[in-house]
Predict the structure.
Amino acid sequence: MLTISQLAAYAGVTVATVRHYHKIGLLPEPGRDRSGYRSYDAAAVVRLIRIHILASAGVPLAQVEELLDADPQEFADEVRQIDKRLRAEVRQVQETRRRLARLAAGEHMALPASVVGYLDRLRDLGIEERYIERERDAWIMVAAQIPGQIDAVIAQKHADLDDPDMVRLYTLLSGALDWTADDPRVVEAADILDRITTRAVESGDIREDGFDDSFVDLLDTTMAESAPAAKRLLTLLEERGWKGWTRLERVPGEDDTP
């Protein structure tokens, strides 16, 4: 006959675990010997080992007793249900890990792959990370507004980067967060934007953006407040006949007035 310590050792559990199983009724408490100690037999070892195996496999203790007392068919059916539940939990854990990985990656959490690829291309051009972070935040809002169109928009942005003027503009704006309002590079940026937008209008390459006016105002306000030189850039653009930023449009001239 075995003491509680020997029983626990044979089953690979602790004495505290044995006592817990006694308390919840999974393992019947044996009688005590003349010295007052519990005395266990081989049947107790077998039952404890089975309990430990089931619990280690993820079976809730509330179900363990039912399985121990089930016939072979009932046991097999119950194990299949437990396996189904565990596989669902594994999928949930894997999805959680994927979400955590996206969180760790920052922009991957809230952006489609096409936008992430575009931001990576800007990095390859040497654009400062500070500027990319601001552009990333804008793209997060844009992608949420036009999820069905964002890939096409990004494809056009990639095509735009084939234009040396656009690359130069990004190179300038990369450091614009530190510009003062009278920095001469603000004028160069305005000239480049004027050329790019004029060519787009003349070629008929201006597309509807799909945004409502309040969203455009939000993006424009964010841009205007992003750096000391931003408002001056908008003013220079207006002097060249353009208004806005997210949606650059011609300023009506005298000839356009009815």
Observations:
- The radius of gyration is 35 Å.
- The first strand starts at residue 242 and ends at 243.
